[in-house]
Amino acid sequence: MSLNGTSTDTIPFLDVAAWLAGDRSALPGLGRTLRHAFEHVGFYYLRGHDVPQALIDATFAEAARFHAQPLEKKLEVKINDHNIGYMPMGGSLARTSKINNNTKPSVNEAIFFRRERTPDDPDVIAGTKLRGLNQWPADLPGFRDTVLAYMAAMESLCKRLVPIYAVALDLPPDYFDTMFAKPNMIQRLSHYPPRASYDDNEFSIAPHTDSGFMTLLAPSAVPGLAIRLPDGTWFDAPSIPGCFTVNGGDILKRWTNDRFLSTPHRALNVSGIDRYAIPFFFDTHPDTLLTCLPTCQSADNPPKYEPVTYHDYAVWYATRNYVHQSKETPA
Protein backbone atom coordinates (compact mmCIF):
# COMPACT_ATOMS: atom_id res chain seq x y z
CA MET A 1 0.00 0.00 0.00
CA SER A 2 2.78 2.43 -0.81
CA LEU A 3 1.78 5.99 -1.60
CA ASN A 4 3.19 8.03 -4.44
CA GLY A 5 4.52 11.51 -3.71
CA THR A 6 4.07 14.05 -0.95
CA SER A 7 4.32 17.41 -2.75
CA THR A 8 1.59 19.91 -1.91
CA ASP A 9 1.84 21.14 -5.53
CA THR A 10 -0.61 18.37 -6.41
CA ILE A 11 -3.45 19.96 -4.44
CA PRO A 12 -4.24 23.64 -5.16
CA PHE A 13 -4.58 26.27 -2.44
CA LEU A 14 -7.66 28.49 -2.17
CA ASP A 15 -6.97 31.55 -0.01
CA VAL A 16 -10.29 33.09 1.03
CA ALA A 17 -9.04 35.71 3.50
CA ALA A 18 -9.85 38.68 1.26
CA TRP A 19 -13.26 37.29 0.29
CA LEU A 20 -14.24 36.65 3.91
CA ALA A 21 -13.12 40.19 4.75
CA GLY A 22 -15.64 41.56 2.23
CA ASP A 23 -13.54 41.99 -0.93
CA ARG A 24 -15.95 40.96 -3.69
CA SER A 25 -13.29 41.55 -6.33
CA ALA A 26 -11.62 38.35 -5.10
CA LEU A 27 -14.58 36.21 -6.21
CA PRO A 28 -13.75 35.66 -9.93
CA GLY A 29 -10.21 34.52 -9.18
CA LEU A 30 -11.38 32.19 -6.42
CA GLY A 31 -13.94 30.73 -8.80
CA ARG A 32 -11.24 29.98 -11.37
CA THR A 33 -9.02 28.32 -8.77
CA LEU A 34 -11.86 26.20 -7.41
CA ARG A 35 -12.93 25.20 -10.92
CA HIS A 36 -9.40 24.03 -11.72
CA ALA A 37 -9.18 22.11 -8.43
CA PHE A 38 -12.40 20.20 -8.98
CA GLU A 39 -11.91 19.54 -12.68
CA HIS A 40 -8.39 18.15 -12.19
CA VAL A 41 -7.90 16.93 -8.59
CA GLY A 42 -11.15 16.98 -6.60
CA PHE A 43 -9.43 18.44 -3.51
CA TYR A 44 -8.07 21.81 -2.43
CA TYR A 45 -6.45 23.33 0.64
CA LEU A 46 -8.51 26.13 2.19
CA ARG A 47 -6.31 28.89 3.51
CA GLY A 48 -7.32 32.20 5.11
CA HIS A 49 -10.47 30.87 6.82
CA ASP A 50 -11.63 32.43 10.07
CA VAL A 51 -12.30 29.37 12.23
CA PRO A 52 -10.24 29.95 15.41
CA GLN A 53 -7.38 27.50 15.87
CA ALA A 54 -8.25 27.30 19.57
CA LEU A 55 -11.71 25.99 18.66
CA ILE A 56 -10.24 23.43 16.25
CA ASP A 57 -7.79 22.28 18.94
CA ALA A 58 -10.59 22.05 21.50
CA THR A 59 -12.69 19.91 19.16
CA PHE A 60 -9.80 17.52 18.57
CA ALA A 61 -9.35 17.31 22.34
CA GLU A 62 -13.04 16.46 22.80
CA ALA A 63 -12.77 13.74 20.15
CA ALA A 64 -9.89 12.18 22.06
CA ARG A 65 -11.73 12.57 25.38
CA PHE A 66 -14.85 10.85 24.06
CA HIS A 67 -12.98 7.92 22.54
CA ALA A 68 -10.86 7.45 25.68
CA GLN A 69 -14.00 6.38 27.56
CA PRO A 70 -14.71 2.70 28.24
CA LEU A 71 -16.68 1.02 25.48
CA GLU A 72 -19.75 0.61 27.66
CA LYS A 73 -19.92 4.38 28.20
CA LYS A 74 -19.66 5.06 24.47
CA LEU A 75 -22.37 2.51 23.77
CA GLU A 76 -24.78 4.52 25.90
CA VAL A 77 -25.12 6.75 22.82
CA LYS A 78 -24.88 3.96 20.24
CA ILE A 79 -25.60 4.99 16.66
CA ASN A 80 -29.26 4.82 15.66
CA ASP A 81 -31.21 4.72 12.40
CA HIS A 82 -30.71 8.48 11.99
CA ASN A 83 -26.93 7.85 11.84
CA ILE A 84 -26.54 9.83 15.04
CA GLY A 85 -24.37 8.60 17.89
CA TYR A 86 -21.44 6.29 18.47
CA MET A 87 -20.39 3.83 15.76
CA PRO A 88 -18.18 1.08 17.23
CA MET A 89 -15.09 -0.27 15.53
CA GLY A 90 -15.97 -2.05 12.30
CA GLY A 91 -19.26 -0.22 11.83
CA SER A 92 -18.67 0.99 8.28
CA LEU A 93 -18.14 -0.92 5.06
CA ALA A 94 -17.72 1.28 1.98
CA ARG A 95 -19.82 -0.72 -0.48
CA THR A 96 -20.43 2.25 -2.82
CA SER A 97 -16.76 2.40 -3.78
CA LYS A 98 -16.20 2.19 -7.53
CA ILE A 99 -12.44 1.71 -7.33
CA ASN A 100 -12.05 -1.04 -4.73
CA ASN A 101 -14.13 -4.05 -3.73
CA ASN A 102 -14.20 -3.32 -0.02
CA THR A 103 -14.89 -6.57 1.80
CA LYS A 104 -13.74 -5.72 5.32
CA PRO A 105 -15.08 -3.12 7.75
CA SER A 106 -12.90 -0.06 8.27
CA VAL A 107 -10.69 -0.02 11.37
CA ASN A 108 -12.08 3.08 13.03
CA GLU A 109 -14.72 4.21 15.49
CA ALA A 110 -16.64 7.48 15.35
CA ILE A 111 -19.43 9.53 16.85
CA PHE A 112 -21.78 11.47 14.58
CA PHE A 113 -23.82 14.60 15.16
CA ARG A 114 -26.24 16.41 12.88
CA ARG A 115 -28.16 19.67 13.09
CA GLU A 116 -29.17 20.26 16.70
CA ARG A 117 -32.93 19.83 16.99
CA THR A 118 -35.53 20.02 19.74
CA PRO A 119 -38.28 17.50 20.52
CA ASP A 120 -40.91 19.78 18.96
CA ASP A 121 -39.06 19.96 15.62
CA PRO A 122 -41.53 18.84 12.90
CA ASP A 123 -38.99 16.39 11.45
CA VAL A 124 -38.37 14.89 14.88
CA ILE A 125 -42.09 14.51 15.51
CA ALA A 126 -42.56 12.93 12.08
CA GLY A 127 -39.62 10.58 12.61
CA THR A 128 -38.06 11.67 9.31
CA LYS A 129 -34.99 9.53 8.69
CA LEU A 130 -31.60 11.18 9.30
CA ARG A 131 -33.24 14.15 11.07
CA GLY A 132 -33.42 12.98 14.66
CA LEU A 133 -32.17 14.38 17.95
CA ASN A 134 -28.46 14.39 18.66
CA GLN A 135 -27.24 11.94 21.30
CA TRP A 136 -24.85 13.63 23.73
CA PRO A 137 -22.60 11.79 26.20
CA ALA A 138 -23.75 12.35 29.77
CA ASP A 139 -20.45 12.45 31.63
CA LEU A 140 -18.30 14.81 29.57
CA PRO A 141 -18.88 18.38 30.81
CA GLY A 142 -18.31 20.95 28.07
CA PHE A 143 -18.30 18.37 25.27
CA ARG A 144 -21.64 19.39 23.79
CA ASP A 145 -20.88 23.12 23.95
CA THR A 146 -17.54 22.71 22.18
CA VAL A 147 -18.89 20.49 19.41
CA LEU A 148 -21.86 22.78 18.76
CA ALA A 149 -19.58 25.84 18.70
CA TYR A 150 -17.36 24.13 16.14
CA MET A 151 -20.32 23.11 14.02
CA ALA A 152 -21.69 26.67 14.10
CA ALA A 153 -18.34 28.10 13.01
CA MET A 154 -18.09 25.56 10.21
CA GLU A 155 -21.64 26.17 9.01
CA SER A 156 -20.96 29.90 8.86
CA LEU A 157 -17.73 29.38 6.93
CA CYS A 158 -19.29 26.97 4.44
CA LYS A 159 -22.23 29.25 3.67
CA ARG A 160 -19.74 31.95 2.70
CA LEU A 161 -17.85 29.52 0.46
CA VAL A 162 -20.96 28.54 -1.53
CA PRO A 163 -20.86 31.65 -3.81
CA ILE A 164 -17.36 30.61 -4.90
CA TYR A 165 -18.79 27.30 -6.09
CA ALA A 166 -21.52 29.12 -8.00
CA VAL A 167 -19.02 31.38 -9.78
CA ALA A 168 -16.78 28.39 -10.52
CA LEU A 169 -19.77 26.85 -12.33
CA ASP A 170 -20.51 30.05 -14.32
CA LEU A 171 -23.60 30.75 -12.23
CA PRO A 172 -24.64 33.92 -10.37
CA PRO A 173 -22.98 34.11 -6.92
CA ASP A 174 -26.35 33.80 -5.14
CA TYR A 175 -27.56 30.84 -7.23
CA PHE A 176 -27.36 28.30 -4.39
CA ASP A 177 -28.29 30.59 -1.49
CA THR A 178 -31.82 29.33 -0.82
CA MET A 179 -30.70 25.70 -1.08
CA PHE A 180 -28.16 26.22 1.69
CA ALA A 181 -30.21 28.57 3.89
CA LYS A 182 -30.73 25.68 6.35
CA PRO A 183 -28.15 23.16 5.22
CA ASN A 184 -27.78 19.54 6.14
CA MET A 185 -24.59 19.06 8.12
CA ILE A 186 -22.82 16.17 9.79
CA GLN A 187 -20.01 16.36 12.32
CA ARG A 188 -17.95 13.21 12.70
CA LEU A 189 -15.36 12.71 15.43
CA SER A 190 -13.23 9.73 14.38
CA HIS A 191 -10.57 7.64 16.07
CA TYR A 192 -8.08 5.60 14.05
CA PRO A 193 -6.03 3.35 16.34
CA PRO A 194 -2.43 2.72 15.23
CA ARG A 195 -1.69 -0.45 13.32
CA ALA A 196 1.77 -1.85 12.69
CA SER A 197 0.37 -3.52 9.58
CA TYR A 198 -2.91 -4.13 7.79
CA ASP A 199 -4.38 -7.33 6.43
CA ASP A 200 -5.05 -7.56 2.72
CA ASN A 201 -7.84 -5.15 1.69
CA GLU A 202 -8.02 -3.66 5.18
CA PHE A 203 -7.83 0.08 5.91
CA SER A 204 -8.38 2.58 8.69
CA ILE A 205 -11.04 3.88 6.35
CA ALA A 206 -11.52 2.03 3.09
CA PRO A 207 -11.25 3.68 -0.35
CA HIS A 208 -14.47 5.59 -0.92
CA THR A 209 -16.00 8.80 -2.22
CA ASP A 210 -18.01 11.08 0.03
CA SER A 211 -21.72 11.38 -0.59
CA GLY A 212 -22.30 15.10 -0.54
CA PHE A 213 -21.40 18.62 -1.62
CA MET A 214 -18.49 19.71 0.58
CA THR A 215 -16.27 18.01 3.17
CA LEU A 216 -13.81 19.98 5.28
CA LEU A 217 -11.08 18.13 7.17
CA ALA A 218 -9.22 20.09 9.84
CA PRO A 219 -5.42 19.66 9.89
CA SER A 220 -4.36 16.74 12.06
CA ALA A 221 -1.06 16.28 13.85
CA VAL A 222 -1.00 12.66 12.66
CA PRO A 223 -0.92 11.97 8.89
CA GLY A 224 -2.98 9.28 7.22
CA LEU A 225 -5.10 10.66 4.35
CA ALA A 226 -4.39 9.54 0.81
CA ILE A 227 -6.29 10.50 -2.34
CA ARG A 228 -6.54 8.68 -5.65
CA LEU A 229 -5.56 11.02 -8.46
CA PRO A 230 -7.33 10.87 -11.85
CA ASP A 231 -4.38 8.93 -13.31
CA GLY A 232 -4.99 6.16 -10.76
CA THR A 233 -2.01 6.80 -8.47
CA TRP A 234 -2.42 7.23 -4.74
CA PHE A 235 -1.10 10.47 -3.28
CA ASP A 236 -0.27 11.00 0.39
CA ALA A 237 -2.01 14.31 1.14
CA PRO A 238 -0.05 16.29 3.73
CA SER A 239 -1.88 17.97 6.58
CA ILE A 240 -1.06 21.68 6.27
CA PRO A 241 -1.17 23.75 9.50
CA GLY A 242 -3.86 26.42 9.29
CA CYS A 243 -5.53 24.87 6.23
CA PHE A 244 -8.60 22.71 5.84
CA THR A 245 -8.38 19.91 3.30
CA VAL A 246 -11.59 20.22 1.25
CA ASN A 247 -13.17 17.84 -1.23
CA GLY A 248 -16.43 17.36 -3.05
CA GLY A 249 -18.56 14.24 -3.06
CA ASP A 250 -20.96 12.32 -5.24
CA ILE A 251 -23.74 14.90 -4.97
CA LEU A 252 -21.46 17.62 -6.36
CA LYS A 253 -20.31 15.29 -9.13
CA ARG A 254 -23.89 14.32 -9.98
CA TRP A 255 -25.16 17.92 -9.82
CA THR A 256 -22.42 19.06 -12.22
CA ASN A 257 -23.01 16.19 -14.68
CA ASP A 258 -19.56 14.77 -13.85
CA ARG A 259 -17.86 18.10 -14.54
CA PHE A 260 -16.51 18.24 -10.96
CA LEU A 261 -14.70 15.24 -9.52
CA SER A 262 -15.68 13.17 -6.51
CA THR A 263 -12.22 11.86 -5.74
CA PRO A 264 -11.72 8.54 -3.92
CA HIS A 265 -9.68 8.66 -0.75
CA ARG A 266 -8.67 6.40 2.12
CA ALA A 267 -6.80 6.47 5.40
CA LEU A 268 -4.15 4.31 7.05
CA ASN A 269 -2.61 4.92 10.46
CA VAL A 270 0.86 3.45 10.65
CA SER A 271 2.18 6.33 12.80
CA GLY A 272 2.38 4.28 15.98
CA ILE A 273 0.05 6.68 17.83
CA ASP A 274 -3.69 7.33 17.85
CA ARG A 275 -5.04 9.47 15.03
CA TYR A 276 -8.17 11.60 15.35
CA ALA A 277 -10.13 13.33 12.61
CA ILE A 278 -13.02 15.80 12.80
CA PRO A 279 -14.45 16.00 9.26
CA PHE A 280 -17.41 18.33 8.74
CA PHE A 281 -19.87 17.50 5.96
CA PHE A 282 -21.91 20.35 4.47
CA ASP A 283 -24.83 19.81 2.10
CA THR A 284 -28.05 21.34 0.83
CA HIS A 285 -31.29 21.25 2.76
CA PRO A 286 -32.41 17.60 2.56
CA ASP A 287 -35.53 18.44 0.54
CA THR A 288 -33.53 20.09 -2.27
CA LEU A 289 -34.22 18.51 -5.65
CA LEU A 290 -30.89 18.01 -7.38
CA THR A 291 -31.23 18.40 -11.13
CA CYS A 292 -28.39 18.87 -13.58
CA LEU A 293 -27.11 22.45 -13.36
CA PRO A 294 -27.87 24.55 -16.46
CA THR A 295 -24.20 25.34 -17.12
CA CYS A 296 -23.24 21.67 -16.97
CA GLN A 297 -25.39 20.37 -19.81
CA SER A 298 -25.85 20.98 -23.50
CA ALA A 299 -27.23 19.27 -26.60
CA ASP A 300 -23.94 17.40 -26.87
CA ASN A 301 -23.74 16.75 -23.13
CA PRO A 302 -27.22 15.90 -21.84
CA PRO A 303 -27.88 15.16 -18.15
CA LYS A 304 -26.48 11.78 -17.11
CA TYR A 305 -28.55 11.39 -13.94
CA GLU A 306 -32.20 11.48 -13.01
CA PRO A 307 -33.25 14.23 -10.57
CA VAL A 308 -33.12 13.14 -6.92
CA THR A 309 -33.61 14.85 -3.59
CA TYR A 310 -30.60 15.10 -1.33
CA HIS A 311 -32.61 13.24 1.32
CA ASP A 312 -33.29 10.24 -0.89
CA TYR A 313 -29.69 10.03 -2.00
CA ALA A 314 -28.39 10.33 1.57
CA VAL A 315 -30.69 7.55 2.79
CA TRP A 316 -29.50 5.28 -0.02
CA TYR A 317 -25.84 6.06 0.71
CA ALA A 318 -26.23 5.40 4.45
CA THR A 319 -27.96 2.11 3.78
CA ARG A 320 -25.13 0.95 1.57
CA ASN A 321 -22.18 1.99 3.74
CA TYR A 322 -23.09 1.51 7.40
CA VAL A 323 -23.43 -1.93 8.90
CA HIS A 324 -26.29 -1.04 11.27
CA GLN A 325 -28.27 0.55 8.42
CA SER A 326 -27.92 -2.44 6.12
CA LYS A 327 -29.36 -4.63 8.84
CA GLU A 328 -32.34 -2.34 9.34
CA THR A 329 -33.20 -1.21 5.82
CA PRO A 330 -33.08 -3.11 2.51
CA ALA A 331 -30.40 -1.78 0.17
Structure characteristics:
nine-stranded mixed sheet, 9 helices, alpha+beta, disordered N terminus, globular, Jelly Rolls, four-stranded antiparallel sheet, 331 residues
Spell the H/E element sequence.
EHHEHHEEHHEEEEEEHEEEEEHH
Protein structure class: alpha+beta
Q: Per the principal axes of the C-alpha atoms, what is the gross shape?
A: globular
The radius of gyration over CA amounts to 19 Å
User: The CATH topology, please?
Assistant: Jelly Rolls
Q: Average pLDDT value?
A: 92
Strand percentage: 15-25%
Going by CATH, what is the homologous superfamily? B-lactam Antibiotic, Isopenicillin N Synthase, Chain
- CATH class label: Mainly Beta
Low-confidence stretches: 1-7
Q: State the end-to-end distance.
A: 30 Å
